[in-house]
Amino acid sequence: EAGVVQSPRYKIIEKKQPVAFWCNPISGHNTLYWYLQNLGQGPELLIRYENEEAVDDSQLPKDRFSAERLKGVDSTLKIQPAELGDSAVYLCASSARTSGSETDTQYFGPGTRLTVL
Amino acid sequence: AQTVTQSQPEMSVQEAETVTLSCTYDTSESDYYLFWYKQPPSRQMILVIRQEAYKQQNATENRFSVNFQKAAKSFSLKISDSQLGDAAMYFCAYSSNFGNEKLTFGTGTRLTIIP
After folding, report:
1. Which of A99, A106, A113, A114 would best serve as a mutation to test chain B binding (most B beta carbons within 10 A)?
2. Fewest 10 Å CB contacts: which of A38, A89, B23, B82?
3. C-alpha–C-alpha distance, residues A57 and A60, integer Å
4. Separation in Å, CA of B4 to nearest CA in chain A
């Protein structure tokens, strides 16, 4: 079974440029997460989707970050414009069940390392 | 809000020996899940072991086991017969039991295996 797929693995951009990250979750997984991992830190949730609906986006900086999950499968996270402080690893994860049921394990992709110059 | 603390930024162990990584957490909830994830240099978070708070029995996965002390809010990971491939960052994480809530991670422990 294929795991969570993310692309690109690495991205280097100039500040003020836009950037987008793509995630394909494990087949059949309804819940998708985007996490931000700064150097030397644990990941922190940016947004959580259940199917097409963003059910928790309280930590997403909405002035420059946006996300979508069309058809409840793939997801794209966008930053526009990027700032120096956005340099980090962006991780995508998915899990099988949705709210109201027992918590299920989250499976992570390999992440995208973003460098903003 | 829940917090997770890993007080050991770095640990090292001789190959084939046993090492224990510490984790404490703070929560007012009675039902939750705890996880240990491993992150090698490839960056992919890999699940090592999972513990449900309502289970008194400590989880075990091959060479990995936990010591879950609910009253003390402690959740340590023991790695037996350490192997070179165990070298990685290890993150302790907490999740509420209300349907796939977010994971709250600690700051990680870097484990080095000495040949």
Report:
1. A106
2. A38
3. 5
4. 10
Regions of chain B short of the pLDDT cut 70: 98-100
Nearest to A116 by CA among A36, A7, A10, A12: A12
Query: What six digits make up the tokens of A63?
Result: 């002035």
Residue A67 · residue A57 · CB < 8 Å: yes
Nearest in space to A50 (alpha carbons), one of A82, A90, A97, A1: A97
| Beta-strand relationship, B109-114 and B10-14 | parallel
Residues of B with CB under 8 A from a CB of A: 4, 33, 35, 37, 42-47, 50, 91, 93, 95-103, 105-108
* pLDDT of A100: 52
pLDDT band at A97 (very low <50, low <70, confident <90, very high): confident
Tell me the per-residue pLDDT of A20-34, one tens digit each, with 9 for 90 and over: 999 999 998 989 999
Provide the token pair at A48: 């959580």
